Amino acid sequence: MNKFHIRKAEQADKGRIWEIIQQAIALRKEQGSRQWQDGYPNEDVVQSDIDKGYGHVVEADGKIIGYVAIIFDIEPAYNAIDGKWLSDGEYVGIHRLAAAQDPHVKGVGTAIMQGVEEIAVLNGVYSIKVDTNFDNGGMLHVFDKLGYQYCGEVHFRGAARRAFEKLLK
């Protein structure tokens, strides 16, 4: 079993992060999804994540194998949910989660989300809100496995997405 380690992304990680995101974009296309097929996310988004301190990488055996943006701030799209969140207080928003395909390591998405939960609690925030495309089976499985509850739909760049929340205490 690989030991996963999550840490803040640094400028030196940007190339590897972009490789992983490009792999995820190609995988979504191969799976017939329209998610991430419109020029988002791109290198400017990754740079912004790093600059703002949102970007995090997941490592195993010293190699970066995953990426996620962990955002301790309001996500405006989440204010207009078609449905109802479990809570109205502070939350951590998760975006741009991607796992490397070179090597493909089983369990990276789960490890990332578990790492996010630990980071949230360490920062005194006990709610995680996240969304994904309707056809992203991998992420939907991770959310189900880790006890995230479906709350409704949110809209990003003109598309409806499934929204989930997990309360951590």
From TrEMBL:
**UniProt keyword annotation of Transcription regulation present:** no
| One GO MF term attached to the UniProt entry | acyltransferase activity, transferring groups other than amino-acyl groups
* InterPro entries listed in its UniProt record: Acyl_CoA_acyltransferase, Bact_Acetyltransf, GNAT_dom
Q: Which Pfam families match?
A: Acetyltransf_1 (PF00583)
Q: What is this protein called?
A: GNAT family N-acetyltransferase
Origin species, per record, is Sphingobacterium puteale
Domain of life assignment: Bacteria
Task: List residues of the N-acetyltransferase domain.
Answer: 4-169
Keyword list (alphabetical) reads: Acyltransferase, Transferase
